[in-house]
Amino acid sequence: MNKKTIITSIVISVFLIGIVSATIIPYFGKIVGSVTVSAPVFYLDGQISTGSYHKLLVDEIPNETSEVNWSDGQRIIFKTENLNLDHFYNSTFNFIFYAKANGSNRQIQMDIIKINPDDSQGGQICYSGSINITSTNDFTNYSLSCPLTGQITLNPNQGIALEIWGMGLSSLDTHSISTGHDYAHGYSRIEVTPQ
Asked: CB–CB of 177/101 below 8 Å?
């Protein structure tokens, strides 16, 4: 055989192998699998993130125990960093927290809001209503739920925040929330339950 015949045979062989491989790979080369995705847990952290906002950590337990205090007429905000998401799926935000007040039956409200990169508010995501804080001496476990009514659209540069404020009219009425302490029911946190 001469060189031309050998080279032609090699080229034709490579070409035929390529065609056969192209027909076999789609049939046998399918990848099948499953992925388990768990919903995030947001932990309240007493450390200051920016300005007067406290940190809201995503799937990370705070390193330090803190007591965050505020008076009626004031609000406190725990915020995440940018979430790099364009939407948040339909779910319920379950607030589990440890609180006390300087008198019985002090009311607080909580909601989830969007936070823009400049720390301005980007709109309410869900509203939980109010709850009476009856404990005056020890931090006591309380819980509220905040269901979404559909998927939430976010700008990838936005984060979310927990906003808490006292409902009374007197600045002498104070509230406290504990962060970073592992109580019998866990840490002060927000658990997300997909709907």
From this structure: no
